[in-house]
């Protein structure tokens, strides 16, 4: 059998005219992540938290995904500070992979909302780095949705501690050396109006309706790195 991108044809499922790669088994080995730079580990971890956080207020959320989302956020909330303190801590790396798997499972089962719309806009239209963009935008997206999704916010607070979901995520990033301002990853302030206009097109379902002035203010805060 001919291997395609490391997976044999027997391990692939044919869908119409295309082949969709479906690995039968994924092995999460913390030893393989020991040399991953701390900065990349932190932003990748908060990127994963974003999947779970938005899953908590997705229009098609369900109790099982909610449990997995909260547990995934909690695991990463424990792991990232420990990784920053001791990058080769195998236990912390294992916790991070456990959390990443949970958050990825949530992403695969429910829809996403405002945060992902904003990040897709910023990454796709302005060529910003993926994980860093998610890290910076997530606290502000959570603050935007806080009053419209109180149960989701309560779960995030329970997972991370603190007094608000938005501040807990911001502090997790800031305290562990991750960027917290769009201006620090290449976003121009002069492009914020265009980003706002793009974000309002083809809107994703969201617990709070998207209002132009409020989204523009969100982007300004994210650009400046203001703590929500």
In terms of topology, how is this protein built?
Elements: E1 3-4, E2 7-8, E3 12-15, E4 18-21, H1 38-55, H2 63-85, H3 90-109, H4 114-126, H5 130-145, H6 150-160, H7 165-175, H8 192-199, H9 212-224
Antiparallel strand pairs: 1-2, 3-4
Describe the structure.
The chain is mainly alpha-helical. It has one domain (38-224): Dehydroquinate synthase-like, alpha domain (Up-down Bundle). The chain is built from 9 helices and 4 strands; from the N terminus they run ββββααααααααα. The strands form 2 sheets. The protein has a two-stranded antiparallel sheet with strand order 1-2. The protein has a two-stranded antiparallel sheet with strand order 3-4. Strand 1 (3-4) and strand 2 form a beta hairpin.
Number of helices: 9
**CATH architectural designation:** Up-down Bundle
The Rg value, from CA coordinates, equals 18 Å
Strands of the widest sheet, in order across it, are 1-2
- CATH topology (level 3) name: Dehydroquinate synthase-like, alpha domain
Quaternary = single chain
Uncertain runs are 1-18
The CATH class is Mainly Alpha
The averaged pLDDT comes out at 92
Ends apart, CA distance between termini = 54 Å
How helix-rich are the residues, as a percent range? 55-70%
The proportion of strand residues reads 5-15%
Tally of strands: 4
The CATH superfamily appears as Dehydroquinate synthase-like - alpha domain
**Shape verdict:** globular
Structural class: mainly alpha
Please give the domain count. Answer: 1
Strand count, sense and barrel status of the largest sheet are: 2 strands, antiparallel
């Amino acid at each position: 059998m001919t291997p395609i991108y490391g997976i044999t044809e027997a391990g692939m499922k044919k869908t119409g005219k295309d082949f969709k790669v479906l690995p039968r088994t994924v092995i999460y080995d913390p030893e393989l992540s020991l040399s991953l730079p701390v900065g990349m580990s932190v932003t990748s971890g908060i990127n994963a938290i974003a999947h779970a956080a938005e899953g908590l207020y997705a229009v098609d959320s369900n109790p099982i995904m909610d449990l997995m989302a909260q547990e995934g956020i909690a695991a990463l909330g424990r792991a990232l500070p420990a990784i920053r303190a001791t990058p080769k801590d195998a236990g912390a790396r294992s916790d991070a992979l456990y959390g990443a798997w949970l958050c990825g499972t949530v992403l695969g089962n429910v829809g996403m909302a405002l945060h992902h719309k904003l990040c897709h806009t910023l990454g796709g239209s302005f060529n910003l780095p993926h994980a860093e963009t998610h890290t910076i935008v997530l606290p502000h997206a959570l603050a935007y949705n806080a009053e419209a999704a109180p149960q989701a916010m309560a779960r995030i607070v329970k997972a991370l501690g603190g007094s608000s979901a938005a501040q807990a995520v911001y502090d997790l990033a800031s305290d562990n050396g991750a960027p917290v301002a769009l201006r620090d990853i290449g976003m121009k302030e002069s492009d914020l109006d265009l980003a706002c206009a793009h974000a309002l097109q083809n809107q994703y379902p969201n617990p709070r309706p998207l209002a132009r002035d409020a989204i523009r203010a969100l982007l300004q805060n994210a650009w400046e790195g203001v703590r929500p």
